[in-house]
Design brief:
With 242 residues, this protein is an alpha/beta fold. Helix content is 38%, strand content 27%. Bound molecules: adenosine-5'-triphosphate and magnesium ion.
Length: 242
């Protein structure tokens, strides 16, 4: 198993945000975690990335295992550098005053595999997102929302990730750009990238993922293949508009 969350309980201050959740992701899968506002989706991703408080909460009990090894005492930079896990955060967090090229290059700081490998990956990102290539010398804040989302994804790829955690990548995108983004992600998955996708747009997420879990106020309340979840009456009623 690539990633296993085992009975994880976490808190912010005195408030417990995850009440013992368990789920797993196999290598090569696309797994989605769907849930409403405040369900604990971002909290789950931040816990996996080992971000320090206040971004990530304190772990009360349970474990986060990556290839069988506990991450609880792993440093955030080692999650990126040694385990090749990357996060595309909610709201993207790109550096607006830097150019597209500078944002992409920054993501390579921890790599040790040399300039030619980095340049090959840059070609790959520009091949996936020609609009980023056209705008490589433009300040990132001048990009459209969709282009900024491409840049956030491109930046994660430049960190040489093999496992990608995505926090609501569809947010703020037009339907057209949203589908384009998901097609690209599907292609990356077919090339071997493992994806854990957090989404409020359950319809979209279940069309795209192999399997999923439903998170409701800090608890997993349903799980199954995307087809099973999409056919589940409770999931339909709560997340798919009936
Ligand atoms: N830094 C923080 N400090 C205190 N409480 C927090 C913090 N971040 C999140 N919470 C609380 O933890 C719970 C889960 O929040 P989280 O952001 O993980 O939800 P989410 O599922 O990502 O929601 P959304 O869909 O709105 O992004 C919420 O009750 C939220 O108010
Ligand atoms: Mg969130």
């Amino acid at each position: 198993m690539l990633l296993e969350i085992r009975d994880l309980r976490v808190k912010y201050g005195n408030i417990e945000a995850l009440h013992g959740i368990s789920f797993h992701v196999e290598k090569g899968e696309i797994v989605t975690l769907i849930g409403a506002n405040g369900a604990g989706k971002t909290t789950t991703l931040h816990s996996i990335m080992r971000l320090p408080p206040p971004e990530a909460p304190k772990v009360l009990s349970g474990d986060i295992l990556f290839e069988g090894m506990s991450l609880l005492s792993t440093e955030p930079h080692d999650v990126v550098r040694k385990l090749h896990v990357a996060l595309v955060p909610e709201g993207r967090h790109i550096f607006g005053n830097l150019t597209v090229m500078e944002n992409l290059t920054l993501a390579t700081y921890a790599r040790k595999d040399g300039a030619s490998a980095i340049s090959a990956d840059l070609d790959r990102v520009f091949d996936l997102f020609p609009r980023l290539a056209e705008r490589r010398n433009q300040r990132s804040e001048s990009l459209s929302g969709g282009e900024q989302q491409m840049l956030a994804l491109g930046r994660a790829l430049m960190s040489k990730c093999q496992t990608l955690l995505l926090d609501e990548p569809s947010m703020g995108l037009s339907p057209l750009l949203m589908y384009e983004m998901f097609r690209t992600l599907k292609r990356l998955n077919e090339q071997g990238l493992t994806i854990l996708l957090i989404e409020q747009n359950a319809r979209l997420a279940l069309r795209f993922a192999h399997r999923g879990y439903v998170l409701d106020t800090g608890e997993i309340v349903a799980s199954g293949s995307s087809a099973e979840l999409a056919a589940d009456p409770a999931v339909k009623k709560a997340y798919l508009g009936g």
